[in-house]
Amino acid sequence: MRTRQVRPEKMKYEFELHISRGYDKIKEADYILFDFITTKIFKSFIYTINVTPQIDLPNKLIGFLVEGLSAPVLSIAKSGNARYQYKLYGYSKTEYELRLSKPDVGKNLFKLKITEKSLKITKEPSKKFIKVEV
Question: Averaged over 6-17, what is the pLDDT?
Answer without folding.
Answer: 76
